[in-house]
């Protein structure tokens, strides 16, 4: 089998109501590459992630993920190509215990029984089977949601604002996990306002402003040179 690219976006435009949420975006993400989508609220980051996972169809242009068009692909097929950890990881969790969550995740992903539990042991060491997801911290919820998403082994992983609400230790653990996944060959796209996170794990930064890509390049170059980051730097 040929190695499928992480994702390719070509001249993607999305209209949401009267707003151009995205305007002729071009973007590629390669296996093993971590890309940070940055830009202020409303810039179009979440819209782009929604397109990559097939929740929103392009108004014009194309999106290809692992060789398929996400919004035309059946969920059972798409789940093996791309996984999204949403802004509220709790939105993905619906079972009453960690064990049930894992059983459901295996079933939904068509994975061998025990696949999700093994991921949970790796990402959330020490958590017990009977823990109610309601009793998990933000960081633990994120780890459990990540395990659920990874159960189908999607080569492309999307995360929306993953460090929101995380304390320092949980953030450090996330950085380690994401670096490990990138080293295993996962393509990762994260929408984030967290410059520190981007600096630590992103190979590339794509800066969006009102639906346009205004910068796309190596992380160090974008974070240092972009005017959009200058106010944050001068305030410190
Ligand atoms: P944030 O950091 O707040 O998540 P974002 O960069 O992810 O912002 P988007 O959520 O993609 O930005 O929003 C892009 C544009 O689309 C904004 O102008 C927003 O108001 C608009 N928009 C977002 N969601 C909807 C929706 N459900 N219906 C109509 N317009 C929407």
Written description of the protein model:
- This protein is 35% helix and 25% strand.
- The chain contains 9 helices and 9 strands.
- It has helices spanning 45-52, 75-78, 98-109, 115-123, 138-150, 168-183, 195-201, 219-225, 230-235; strands at 7-16, 19-29, 34-38, 60-65, 82-85, 156-160, 187-191, 204-209, 212-218.
- The strands form 2 sheets. Strands 5-6-7-3-8-9 form a 6-stranded mixed beta sheet, with helices on both faces. A 3-stranded antiparallel beta sheet has the order 2-1-4.
- A hairpin with a 2-residue loop joins strand 8 (204-209) and strand 9.
- Residues 230-236 have low confidence and may be disordered.
- It binds adenosine-5'-triphosphate.
- Adenosine-5'-triphosphate (ATP) binds at residues 16-17, 19, 21, 39, 41-47, 191.
- It is found in: Cell membrane.
- This is ABC transporter domain-containing protein.
Question: What's the total helix number?
Answer: 9
> Could you give a short account of the major beta sheet?
6 strands, mixed
Number of strands: 9
Ranges with pLDDT <50 over ≥5 residues? Answer: 230-236
C-alpha Rg (nearest Å):
18 Å
Shape: globular
Strand order of the largest sheet: 5-6-7-3-8-9
SSE pattern: EEEHEHEHHHEHEHEEHH
Helix content: 25-40%
Euclidean distance between termini CA atoms? 50 Å
Helix/strand-derived category reads alpha/beta
* Strand fraction: 25-35%
- Ligands bound, unique: adenosine-5'-triphosphate
Instruction: Output mean pLDDT.
Output: 90
């Amino acid at each position: 089998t040929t190695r499928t690219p992480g994702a390719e976006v070509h001249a993607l435009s999305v209209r949401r109501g009267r707003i151009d949420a995205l305007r002729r975006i071009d973007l590629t993400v390669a296996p093993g590459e971590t890309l940070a989508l940055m830009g202020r609220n409303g810039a179009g980051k979440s819209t782009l992630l929604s397109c990559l996972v097939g929740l929103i169809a392009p108004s014009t242009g194309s999106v290809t993920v692992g060789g398929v068009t996400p919004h035309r692909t059946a969920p059972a097929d798409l789940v093996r190509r791309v996984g999204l950890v949403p802004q509220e990881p709790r939105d993905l969790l619906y079972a009453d215990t960690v064990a049930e969550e894992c059983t459901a995740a295996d079933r939904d992903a068509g994975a061998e029984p025990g696949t999700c539990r093994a991921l949970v042991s790796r990402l959330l060491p020490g958590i017990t089977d009977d823990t109610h997801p309601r009793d998990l911290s933000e960081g633990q919820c994120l780890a459990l949601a990540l395990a659920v998403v990874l159960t189908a082994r999607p080569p492309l992983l999307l995360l929306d604002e993953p460090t929101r609400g995380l304390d320092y230790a949980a953030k450090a653990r996330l950085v380690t996990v994401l670096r490990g996944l990138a080293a295993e060959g996962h393509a990762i796209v994260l929408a984030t306002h967290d410059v520190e996170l981007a600096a630590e794990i992103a190979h590339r930064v794509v800066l969006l402003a009102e639906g346009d890509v205004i910068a796309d390049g190596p992380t160090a170059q974008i974070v240092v040179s972009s005017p959009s980051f200058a106010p944050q730097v001068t305030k410190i």
